[in-house]
Design brief:
The complex is a heterotrimer of chains A (about 500), B (about 120) and C (about 230). With about 500 residues, chain A is an all-alpha fold. Chain A contains 20 helices and two strands. In chain A, strands 1-2 form a two-stranded antiparallel sheet. Chain A is globular. With about 120 residues, chain B is mainly α. Helices cover about 65% and strands about 0% of the residues of chain B. Classes of the chains: A mainly alpha (about 500), B mainly alpha (about 120), C mainly alpha (about 230). Chains in contact: A-B, A-C, B-C.
Chain lengths: ~500, ~120, ~230
Amino acid sequence: MVSPVLLIAVPLGLAFLIPLVGMASRRATGLMPILACLFNLVAVVLILPAALSDAIVVRIGGFAPPFGINLYAGPLGVLFAGLIALAGLAVSIYALGYIRRGSIRRYHLLYLLLLVGANGVVLTGDVFNLFVFFEILCISSYALVGYFGDRGGLEAASKYLVQGAVGSGLLLLGIGILYGMFGTLNMADLAARIGSSGGMSVFVPLALIVSGLGVEAAIFPLNAWLPDAHSSAPSPISAILSGIAIEVGLYAVARMVMTVFGAESMMAFLMFLGAATVLAGEMCAFAQRDVKRMLAYSSIGQVGLVLFALSVFSPGSVAGGLFQLLSHTLGKGLLFLAAGYMIYRSGSRRISSLNGMASRMPITSLVFAVGALSLIGLPPFAGFASKLMIVGSVLARGGTMLTLLLGAVLVGTLIEGAYLFGVVQAIYFRKTPAGAEGGRAPVSAVVPMLLLAALIVVVGVWPGPVAEALRAAASDLMDRTAYMGGVLP
Amino acid sequence: MSFLESNVYYMGALGLVLVGLLVILVRHNLIKMIIGLSIMDTGVNLFLVAVGYSRGGTAPIFSRAASDPAAMVDPVPQALVLTAIVIGVAVLALALAMAVRLHGHHGTLDMRKIRELRW
Amino acid sequence: MRALVALAVLAVIATGLVLALSDIPFGAPDSRVGPHYNRSGREDTGAVNMVTSVVVGYRAFDTLGEITVLFVAAVGLGALLHRTSRPGGGDDREPASMVLTTGCRYLFPLILLFGTYIFMHGHLTPGGGFQGGAVIASAFLLVYLGCRGRRIGRGWASSVESLGGLVFVGLGLAGLAAAGHWFLSAFLPKGTPHQLFSAGIIPLIYVAVGLKVGVELTGVIDRLMEDTQ
């Protein structure tokens, strides 16, 4: 049986190997992230059957919790690790051809370490360990946003860094207060102790921790950095940031609020915040003329939707929220990858320069359309299945307040449909501007884009198995007793 | 003010955190923001160390085999701070590299002037 | 205007923090794990310095993450300061004083020795890999300030960084493969306390970490210095 710790240890080892490999051949360094993601995919497939039934608890160093750090490889963690590996694989193949400037060896190293950080966050069962791996994720993303060294990228990266670092400081402060109160850093042990005392006394550390994690999860109003960072970063990095980094941030918020703190009041607050985020994000996206900025604001909107669904806190809605997370990773990742080459070939990021792109880049335009339609929530794509699940479960929960909020969220979805349709229409039905450049996307880009598009279609047509697995993942998140029982002796 | 007196170390550490936050929020020069970040990190680290203190406790090292473990302070916050200091240094180094490149591009570090990205 | 909003936000945060202080009485920690580490640290890990036993024994995974963070920052710094063409031009700074140039030549090996002592004895006396690595980097900083024109070899430095990290991960995987099924288990004999060669894998980890951090920080200094010339 493969130990889940290898999901973190092997990519980390490969990352440390990259500088040595880079001394022999610079191009070969691009293969290391691919190798790591393939290994992780295989490992996830091997671990998943066992993890779905009963969470695997790995004791690092052999020390029993709460005296040692433990990994909690439950359905949610392993599924997330699989998603990270999948998206990571697609984007790293894409980056082989796309990244040609700058210190290429360092790009692949930073990228692989970003994935390592993400894997660490979703698999850990210790609060301070979460902080450390969260920092690995954040710091590598700060560096990658500014990778090309252009004015926009550096400005976005510096703002992202300052805001993210403030968030990390608040997170650490919250963890310190938590340790002072309860004397332990193990998530299950904390859950047990908070369960007995609970209430207002833990409000301050809860607020600090949610604010700290919320910067990376792009919860309104902590998401001022996102439009700049996601639009000015190199396209594969935009895809990974929108597809993995904010998702992992949301996971961390959900894990802390639901499993560790069990804070119902905070969840109600987050529900309102989520709905507000959806409207704010989609309305800003509608007004954009720059395609990457539009996609970045759309990410904010989607984050709001996921947050809303998770905060409703019914088994169906949490599973729906997780499903939406998955379809967003696939869809938004695909959109950024496709947009990357479209921008590269047309030479401009304005939406008007994408007019008539379908004739010049047929495959890229097709996958862009697939991603856009999935995000809007049309069948037979993954986005439809996930949105259906959310709407169904929220309606089943009932209540006037919920239905009103759901209405607001659906208005946001309509706005999203409007602007995304507008772009797809421009690509297919407008005339190419005179003197526009052409050129197809290379194979290294087409393969991952087709892979993601295929996954979107497959998950959309057969949502059953995915939905089942996500229900198990939802109970992983919601059932505190099972979590504590699984970890503590 | 017995509360103040008994919690003076906490107050000092939290005061540093607030000063650092104030600098980041109010100042426009990137280097000053970075210094504010560093002050904030220092404050958080001091707070963590203060959490682990126990009155009359000594360093958690058995320099003589017969030292009493019960009279030692908590080693966990010290270990956490070790990690947190390194992470703080890492962020600082990256921030300074960005500042160097930004200065190369714009000739200034005033964040009000480095505002090319429209909303 | 902005200052007022900032002060308001800070006032809210300050109130919240002060309210939380009543739950953490100063000087009377209510820790569940701390006293256990103090009592059982020597038997479980073999180290005499309890902070080391926590950092590299009980919470070794955090330390692995920590060296990764430093690695990310050093690589990120290298990526950001990467230039395809180095700007030419001489060094028009003031030459260093005689105290500095003499001092740097004689103090450099002594400081290196001190740094090595710190990380090698991490399990016995206060210190450890990071502290020792920082002292080593300060020795190189002295050389950069005093005896200018000397540079650390890039390829060699990069190899030491990689190998340091690989040793740490390798020890973890070896623990996984060898004794027990735990990553980073102490599979080497713990020996007698207070000896230099004791505490299982802890001195090995700290040597790897100390060298890695020392070379990494020196590389960071080197990059920043070169950029300003």
